[in-house]
Design a protein that fits this description.
By secondary structure, this protein is α+β, with helices and mostly antiparallel strands. Helices cover 49% and strands 17% of the residues. The protein has a seven-stranded mixed β-sheet with strand order 15-28-27-26-16-24-25, with helices on both faces. The chain has a six-stranded antiparallel β-sheet with strand order 7-6-8-14-9-12, with no helix packed on it. Strands 1, 2, 3, 4 and 5 form a five-stranded antiparallel β-sheet that branches. Helix 5 runs antiparallel to helix 7, helix 5 packs parallel to helix 8 and helix 8 packs parallel to helix 27. The longest helix is centred in the last third of the chain and has 35 residues. It is elongated.
Length: 762
């Protein structure tokens, strides 16, 4: 099995370089990301291992004007950011010169996966050949005479030659691409080992020797292809989440022109201000505001809830949501490339491209592999020939060293676990923006919460609404129906939950911004709003009573006072209990006033909290925690949490956060519940355990296997079996992360631990 994923072979043909995108194409495919900066994502199918990632990023880092480059192994693409100008830097030319010709990325590509198809065909040929050669080998091992042995060896050679030529192309092309540019990769010693094993076996067959290793050469390719196919399938499964999201956006949309006519345009040509018509059953192509129409939307992509949400004129809608019942006219607020759906796709792609410290260690170790193995094999060859004078034996041992020391298990140890963990969290409604964030999350010891929009939904709720006076609530709700103020909406919602019938005698409702609502009820003047205003007889009375909340008054006489609090976010109590169960400290940092923060902290049982915190105050608190040696997880929402996100060890935000908050956070949870926090923590810790186990397995295998190979105790066939077996163990261990059944219902405090991976030693 190999850590190198396939794909480089597709660009071995020089014809592939003739379709490189032009600088103008690159500009059209890019998007502005900051003042004077643009960013584009290019598909680079030749990326196939950690060494490729380093080569691509190093090459682009040396291009004048390039500010940032991050290659992605799973998606086989590279995201490049550069200083804007008349023409982009020599990005395409640099990649092509390095042996990685790019083309414009198309994440919504349809059709079968050509790499997967080639792997399956190569695997089938190698499997057929190895099965037949093994049958012939068994006949030789059973004790046939010399003449029949030579015949069986010759038949094995005839079967092995076309199989090695066809199935081995996956490795030969990759090795040649590296060697012709003065580099090496893991496929170089593999190709050398296979070629030497075959050549040595042909020599033994011609000379009538007792041993031949056609079975070892073909079996080696078979196991390598099994590993490569599994690796590609796992990466494709994870990347399918990104491609599936991209396909949620329609290819084109009907646009209403200013003269009333309509036209069908590609989604990429939509600009802010355009009016698009979304038919029932279609998905929204861009973010925007409903101009006309009444319908219901499936917003499960945004909220994780499948219940339809009613929308009408004025409602804000997101790209990717499904229009269920009636046509809508929507004014686009952003271009398609900057929509909510496009941002989610970019976040998922960034998660695949992230590399943790574990992964960087494994990549560096793998980079040292080829020179070390080549040197070890040469030393073994020279030493055995010097001692025994038997060149045949020395070459056989050198081949075994080349085969058995392939660090495929080391290369697979980290990325396989991270890919599975990222996909599993996405299935549970948590997006990981960076693979390194999983590693950082596993080490946190403090959780810091924002209040409004995080622990609470930021929506007022009438306190003790079940005990409120029914008549007073009905009168207040009648006035509140004419306002969009949060407290008015809370009153209307509370009355709707009890009775819902409004007072028909109320008329002439007027709203005074900053004060409240005034209406006539028969001969009475009814006011709902700020106490200082509602209890005075004039619309504004600076000398009136001090503000005492929202009140209902009739002719200046107090009828009812309403107190509001904020609705807790679902799972808030369970999440805090789960974090404490893991030994983490919990505190609240909020910009709200002291009574509100203290009340919420008391409700949730949080002892440490700070109120009236400005952004710089939150930043200072996170910095002080870091200075004290703590690793803090910051869970917040909103613009004022962004500096704290940067200072925190790792950060998390809900999908309802403002754009800058989502961009700054390491994790984004799509569901409403805060269960996402403990789930991500448990998954990260379990992933860390599996990564450490995989690294230990890989190191132990190489430490034990290499002395046996150098000592001449291992044949090439046994070396192939041992090397492949170690990689299979690593993959099987990584798959343990995904063995737990997924629940359809939201997690609760008693269930999140088992769901996320309780019982690692099971």
């Amino acid at each position: 099995m190999s850590c190198c994923a396939p794909g480089a072979e597709a660009f071995a043909d020089p014809e592939a370089t003739r379709t490189l995108p032009s600088p103008e194409d690159l500009v059209l495919a890019s998007r502005p990301v900051a003042d004077g900066q643009r960013e584009a994502r290019l598909s680079v199918p030749a990326i196939h291992c950690g060494a490729c990632l380093r080569t691509v990023e190093s090459a682009l880092a040396g291009v004048d004007g390039v500010l940032h480059a991050r290659a992605n192994l799973t998606g086989r693409n590279v995201t490049v950011r550069w200083r804007d100008g008349s023409l982009p830097p020599a990005i395409v030319e640099t990649l092509a010169a390095a042996g990685y010709p790019p083309h414009l990325a198309d994440s919504a590509r349809d059709g079968p996966d050509p790499v997967q198809s080639e792997l399956v065909r190569a695997l089938s040929v190698a499997g057929f050949a190895s099965g037949n050669i093994m049958l012939l080998s068994v006949s030789v091992w059973s004790g046939t005479d010399a003449a029949m042995r030579d015949v069986f060896h010759a038949l094995s050679a005839l079967i092995a030659l076309p199989a090695l030529a066809y199935s081995g192309r996956v490795f030969y092309r990759s090795a040649w691409q590296a060697l012709r540019r003065g580099r090496t990769n893991m496929d170089v010693p593999i190709s050398i080992g296979v070629a030497l094993a075959f050549a040595l076996s042909v020599y033994d067959t011609i000379e009538g020797g007792p041993h031949a290793y056609f079975d070892a050469a073909v079996m080696l390719l078979l196991f390598l292809l099994v590993g490569r196919t599994l690796d590609h399938a796992m990466r494709a499964r994870a990347h399918a989440a990104v491609e599936g999201l991209a396909r949620l956006s329609p290819r084109g949309v009907v646009v209403e022109r200013e003269d009333g006519t309509t036209a069908y345009l590609p989604v990429g040509e939509i600009v802010p201000g355009m009016t698009v018509i979304v038919a029932a059953g279609d998905r929204l192509p861009v973010d925007g505001r409903v101009l006309s129409g009444v319908s219901q939307l499936d917003r499960s992509l945004v909220t994780g809830e499948n219940l339809p949400v009613p929308v009408s004129a004025g409602a804000v809608v997101e790209a990717g949501t499904l229009n269920l019942s009636a046509p809508l006219r929507v004014e686009a607020s952003v271009a398609a490339g900057d929509s909510f759906l496009a941002e989610i796709v970019r976040l998922m792609a960034a998660a695949e491209g992230g590399r943790s410290a574990y992964r960087r260690i494994a990549d560096r170790a793998a980079a040292l592999y080829a020179p070390f193995v080549h040197a070890t094999a040469i030393l073994a060859l020279v030493a055995w020939f010097s001692v025994t004078g038997d060149l045949h034996l020395a070459i056989t041992i050198a081949v075994a060293v080349l085969i058995i020391t392939c660090p495929c298990a080391l290369g697979l140890a980290v990325p396989i676990v991270q890919v599975i963990a990222t996909r599993r969290l996405f299935d549970r409604g948590v997006m990981v923006k960076d693979g390194a964030a999983l590693e950082r999350l596993a080490g946190v010891d403090v959780v810091v919460f924002d209040k409004t929009g995080t622990l609470t939904l930021g929506v007022p709720r009438l306190r003790d609404r079940d005990h409120a006076d029914a008549k007073a609530l009905a009168l207040a709700a009648t006035l509140a129906a004419y306002s969009r103020h949060p407290h008015a909406r809370a009153l209307a919602a509370a009355h709707a939950a009890r009775d819902g019938r409004l007072d028909p005698a109320v008329a002439d409702v007027r709203e005074y911004p900053g004060d409240g609502l005034e209406a006539r009820r028969n001969a009475d003047v009814v006011r709902l709003g700020r106490a200082a205003w509602a209890l005075a007889r004039q619309p504004r009375d600076p000398a009136g009573p001090a503000e005492a909340g929202t009140v209902l008054a009739v002719n200046g006489r107090l009828v009812a006072a309403f107190v509001f609090d904020e609705a807790l976010r679902a799972g808030a109590r369970d999440a805090i209990a789960a974090f404490r169960g893991e030994g983490l400290d919990v505190e609240i940092l909020s910009g709200d006033h002291e009574p509100a923060v203290a009340g919420l902290a008391g409700t949730l049982g949080v002892v440490r909290f700070r109120a009236a915190m400005r952004p710089e105050g939150k930043l200072a608190r996170l910095n002080s925690l870091a200075a004290a040696g703590h690793k803090a997880l910051m869970i917040g929402d909103g613009l004022n949490d962004t500096p704290a996100f940067a200072a925190a060890h790792v950060s998390m935000a809900p999908s309802s956060a403002v754009d800058v908050g989502r961009n700054a956070a390491d994790f984004v949870f799509l569901r409403e519940s805060l269960d996402a926090g403990p789930l991500a923590l448990a998954t990260a810790r379990r992933a860390g355990q599996l990564i450490r186990q995989n690294l230990a397995i890989a190191v132990l295998y190489n430490g034990v296997a290499l002395p046996f190979a150098i000592a001449g105790l291992v044949t090439p066939l046994v070396a192939a079996l041992a090397m492949s077996g170690s990689s299979l163990i690593v993959v099987a261990n990584a798959l343990r992360l995904d063995w737990r059944p997924r629940r359809k219902r939201p997690l609760r405090a008693a269930a999140w631990r088992a769901e996320a991976g309780e019982g690692l030693a099971r």
